[in-house]
Amino acid sequence: MSGRCRDYGVVRNHSSPYCRLRSVDLRSVRWTSGFWAKRFKQCHEESLPHLWELLSDPDRGHALTNLRIAAGLEDGEFVGTHWQDEWLYKWLEAAASIYAITGDPALDRRMDEVIGLIGQAQEPDGYIATQTTVRGWKRWQSIHHHELYVMGHLITAACLHRRITGKVSLLEIACKAADYIGDTFGGRDPALAHFPFNPTIIMASVELYRTTGERKYLDLANLFIEMRGSSPEGSDVNQDAVPLREETEVVGHSVLSTYLYAGAADAYMETGDPSLLDALQRLWRDLTERKIYLTGGCCALHHGLSIRGHEVHEAVGPAYYLPSATAYNETCAQIGNLMWNWRMLAISADSRYADVMERCLYNSILSGIGLDGASWFYTNVLRWHGREHELLSGDARQRFQPGQKDICCPSNLLRTIAEWHSYLYSVSEEGLWVNHYGGSAFDGPLADGRPVKVTQETDFPWRGEVRLTIELPGPAEFALVLRIPEWAEGAGVEVNGDPAAATPGSYVRLHRTWADGDAVFLSLPMPPRLVEAHPRVEELRGQVAVVRGPLVYCLESVDLPEGVRISEVHVPQDVCWSPRHDPSLLGGVTVLEGEVRRVPEGDWAGRLYRPLRPVPGEGVRARLIPLYAWANRGISEMTVWMPAC
Amino acid sequence: MSGRCRDYGVVRNHSSPYCRLRSVDLRSVRWTSGFWAKRFKQCHEESLPHLWELLSDPDRGHALTNLRIAAGLEDGEFVGTHWQDEWLYKWLEAAASIYAITGDPALDRRMDEVIGLIGQAQEPDGYIATQTTVRGWKRWQSIHHHELYVMGHLITAACLHRRITGKVSLLEIACKAADYIGDTFGGRDPALAHFPFNPTIIMASVELYRTTGERKYLDLANLFIEMRGSSPEGSDVNQDAVPLREETEVVGHSVLSTYLYAGAADAYMETGDPSLLDALQRLWRDLTERKIYLTGGCCALHHGLSIRGHEVHEAVGPAYYLPSATAYNETCAQIGNLMWNWRMLAISADSRYADVMERCLYNSILSGIGLDGASWFYTNVLRWHGREHELLSGDARQRFQPGQKDICCPSNLLRTIAEWHSYLYSVSEEGLWVNHYGGSAFDGPLADGRPVKVTQETDFPWRGEVRLTIELPGPAEFALVLRIPEWAEGAGVEVNGDPAAATPGSYVRLHRTWADGDAVFLSLPMPPRLVEAHPRVEELRGQVAVVRGPLVYCLESVDLPEGVRISEVHVPQDVCWSPRHDPSLLGGVTVLEGEVRRVPEGDWAGRLYRPLRPVPGEGVRARLIPLYAWANRGISEMTVWMPAC
Asked: pTM above the 0.90 mark?
């Protein structure tokens, strides 16, 4: 085990030569107040133990039981999906991240116990995947057995555990697994060409390289990238029809694609291969200019065909295909997109990537977890017709409790919320970068090792005012680099009362010799705004959505006068939305209140078309809530997009 | 061979006890002038020989060559799709229908030659399907070999050929084939449960029963209906997951579903089984109230999932899913829908079924054939983005010429146009029914055998005035029953100058003692109208389409001022469309001219969403053409639905 490991963030790119921004230590950032402090607390105190309870329950999650059976400690049968193990590994990753902040010794002990069990379940040659071991199945018989997928998550969790606890127990298991994978795939057996179907192994291998310094793990990541499109039977469903470097279209399963691109970005950070970065930039433009939802959702299709005619599922749609009511938008796809954009941001220091992260996180990721921290959505629609809604992708009428299935999103959300604070700040030779906003404190070294403490006071995302206070042992010259989100038109920055220029959609660099107690005041105006979509998006023609700051709003039927249907609501182009913070509603949200137009639908019984009749509308009061908070008040109708009038 | 066969229409339901309306003899109706006279002439003189040339060409269609090889007259390999044979059978059906009117002896000789060849290609036990015979494949190995599909078309063609020519040559082949099928499927071998995948055999068997009087053929049809949903592996793709009588949703491949329903309606006509009619009425409501395009298209999905989660293709969409640009709407699906509705009309005498026939025929069926009569669309979209359009369902940029593939629609269109005149009139105990309009003459017996001649003078569909003149050997009491289409608000009828009531969406009965020379004048007002869609159709929210009479109109980019994009056009709710007939445009069409609003799109480069900005629009002149005539002037942009303003 190399001694190179130092304590850095979730993506340990401290020594990557092709990054403009470096992650900061997970422990150098803490939530202090507000939106995220509350969510982190809930994640620690409620979601983490709740998911532990489910996954360790032999009758529900069965994940721990599968490991015990594989370890020979219990008799029984494998129960669950082919990726049941990764529930535990993502739980471990989240636990390590929370432990980094809380230092909770009970959590440390529980992690040690689980790791001991994992070690016992690992086969002597390093292979570990209970879905095959317990059943006595032959290895590598089907890409859908997801053996590499679960091992990828194991390795990722191990790197973080090593970094945070200093212990090598899980890392040793991970290296053994990675060495086994290297032996298995290194010879490039054509029969195994499609096995990196669900490509967590790529991010994992790069991170293992960063953690251990062993070049072979970086080579392993590159091997898996290069296997894509290398065989004539490759399919678009897992981005396997065309070599990644030649691909021009984001295609296929959106969790697979975003994880692949995130892994390739990790590889680029270490190799600097320009053809890889070219491809990633090209694909990012394809996704963000033609295929992404306003909410950051990147998965229009439950099932369909790719542009090359391959059958795909849970997949990005064709260009400009963005239906609301049937949107799939699996929560994990948006988490993959967040991870990919985080890496692109590190590479480029281009604030557009942070804008996408923000859009995903506050809307199509957070909508995936109930306000109770214990219920989830697998898919994230933008319109819901209440009890009349027919959708076969699971019962999205109500948020679900994970049982033996549908386990990927809850633990993915768990680790994302547990790690989000580490995405707020980055460092570079220039200084300290503030990528995202939230009541927090950074207390750590700049890239050159000089210590700095910055306190961020804000009620973001409800208000756009942010006060940053600098604490220093003595004057120090560096830049404080603040992201001005693309939506923050009219943004202003003041340093100790002196204004500085701030352009939306960029970083503003405040380079100076800072003194202890210096204060920066950032103002990000958040007027509610109507947004329209590209005219090629036929599902959104003539419709508007309402956004305020990073939040996409929605209209839920419980917030309309009795008897008014969601579909009757039209939004005047000159509507005036009044923001009002209601601390007692939905855990505390800023609602938007205004007068919209109700255009009575009249009688549609038995007909699908009718002659257009000018109908006199009437003004009605409506209240919009942030999309992430929908479906927490029973079964309702909901819509993000509404006809403009 | 029974002598029961008499000369009746395409659906020979003359003696069906459960029909309110009976088909008339194909030869009792002739086109005299106008829209359909021209199309019938083109069908006879251009399309029929053109398709013959293609199908008999060994290098292109290869259909005749396959038969020759099967007959042992030539050496060679099978070339084409698994349903190559049915190209020839539908050609034969169209040829027989045209021969009925023209009496062209050359056509008769050609039919005889082909029938001789078919007889030689038939295997001794009655089986005939060159796709397996020529290849030496085992029979009944895959539902996708379409053996029953081609034999179904053979039988249908044979019934019509017998009826029109009086010859039994093809009918004998058909009976031999049907008897073989009866022997094969009569035992209900579970291994064959899914073979009536493409259910032409049902309509065919009922028609064979009608033609021969042999009850076993009706039993065979019922057997195939009852096989649906009888096995646990049945899929929604071919309506095989649920028994037809219990089904509540139109699902799956739309050619398969509409042919199945048409066949079941045929069976109902002969058996009067109320549970079958219940199911058909329920499914018809599901289709017309939730799943059909304004154009009559009934096939939203190229590929996707059914409501029960089965993979389906070329299929009806989920409820209210009606995208324009990606609409599949295979021409044959609408022809299937036309055939189904024709049977429902015969059963019920309910004019709503004729309304659906009309909507399909004039819009999503006729759009499938080029004005040259020699080029085709497989799919029928409602919006096209010109050269920028990406759609993987074939190259819909230009109409295609059938080669060895894509053969089903051209010959299906051919037979539909060749037979359409026989759908204009029906008879019942009450009298003569006029279901559809067009310059034509009916000269035949009423149901009780009394002769009557009715001449229909009209410029339909361009004008809604219809003059019907009655010729009788002497006074006769009967009803002349005229369909008032659902779109004909303000319709009026006059008998010899005396007005009678006429309610849109119904038949008006003019019961009296008619005298030679009596004249009925029907006025069906055709003001251009804006139509809106049900608010659940998210692709059509806030948009309008323009219809006039039976025609759906579209905007094609060549009819806009230079530089104006289709997507910039908004339609004022109070737009005034001026109809103008242009005999030199597109073979003679009535265009609609008016001032629409151009709302410049501005710059969308690199973005998918943007803040809504009120943009001052400007008036521009636009010209709309009937949808069926689009894509006859090069590659253009086209749209049926346009945002209202």
From this structure: yes
